Amino acid sequence: MRFSLIDRILELEPGHRIRTVKALSLAEEYLGDHFPKFPVMPGVLMLEALTESAAWLVRVSEDFAHSMVVLKEARRIRYGQFVEPGQLLHLSAEIVSQDERITECKAEGRLDDRLTVSGKIYLERYNLAERNPDLARVDRSVVRDMRDLFQILSPIAAIGHGQASRTPAEAASLHNEISGAAAPLPGNG
Question: Strands of 68-79's sheet, edge to edge?
């Protein structure tokens, strides 16, 4: 992954939906060129942020079964407003359908309650070793790196208190419980 635009995974329901956030900073290098006197997040990077959000949903839903989760197609992408430095772009993706290779997601990004970007994202999932068995080691390395990055983006996933790290699905469930996104914790209502 060349870009890593997602700053935090806020909510994750494996197999269903994800909510993430991108905090746009003036320090992001591309803003110097887009545009020097009116810095805004390029539309293609808004699309990349939607894609990354949907890809995290797919990875965790499959327990990182595929090293490659890549954009195959984007349809009906609509842009509503600019994202400027200092703003938080809240992103969400929801799985609409899935077969053995392609996942279709409905995705959107919002500033406060204003729709900023939306569309359908089609992600292809595969392992490099399917095309070249010599690349199985690369698949393992990519999956390990994605698991490590998930631990950073969703800190609740790293809570182990001396135990082995939680699986992504366990981490997502615990994260949702603690953040109030799922059912309340026992004894809390």
Answer: 8-13, 17-23, 88-98, 102-111, 114-126, 68-79
- The residues carrying an active-site annotation are 34
Residue 187 lies in a domain: no
The pLDDT of residue 36 is 84
| Residue-number span of the structural domain to which 12 is assigned | 8-179
What pLDDT, in 10s, does the model give residues 4-39? 899 999 999 999 999 999 999 999 988 888 888 999
Residue 185 lies in a domain: no
- Confidence (pLDDT) at 32: 86
Number of domains forming the structure of the chain: 1
CATH of the domain at 37: 3.10.129.10
HSE value, Cβ hemisphere, 13 Å, CA-based, for 43: 9
Q: What are phi and psi of 149, to 5 degrees?
A: -65, -35
Residue 76 lies in a domain: yes
